[in-house]
Amino acid sequence: MTIGEFSELTGISCSALRYYEDKGLIQVERDFGNRRIYSDKDVEWVKFLKRLKDTGMSLKEMKHYSDLRYEGDSTISERLEILQNHEIYVDEQRKLWEEYSENLKSKIQWYKKQL
């Protein structure tokens, strides 16, 4: 599939896909005309990268994880450790956002009472 089709399928802009490729986060096959050819496997990988980004993983850490992934199964334990550490980070952020939300709810209730 072409980069435009892939962009629509993943919800990631063509420029972001090119950026990910430039940074080494994705390795894309090329045809005889040097055009990108994306596979179904690439779809799942890019969607996973998007989730990592959306949950606050740094580009540097995503790059490290991606490098390990492309090295193969011998890096599974390292990738597991990265994801476990990121899960701790995500859980800490979730707790922080819950505190923020409770504070907002409290302030909203206070204003409602004032009216």
TrEMBL record:
Pfam families membership: MerR_1
Residues in HTH merR-type domain copies: 1-68
InterPro entries: DNA-bd_dom_put_sf, MerR-type_HTH_dom, MerR_fam
Keywords per UniProt: DNA-binding
Gene3D superfamilies listed in its UniProt record: 1.10.1660.10
Domain of life: Bacteria
Entry annotated with the keyword Cell cycle: no
Family matches, as PROSITE patterns: HTH_MERR_1, HTH_MERR_2
Protein name as annotated: Transcriptional regulator
Organism of derivation: Clostridium zeae
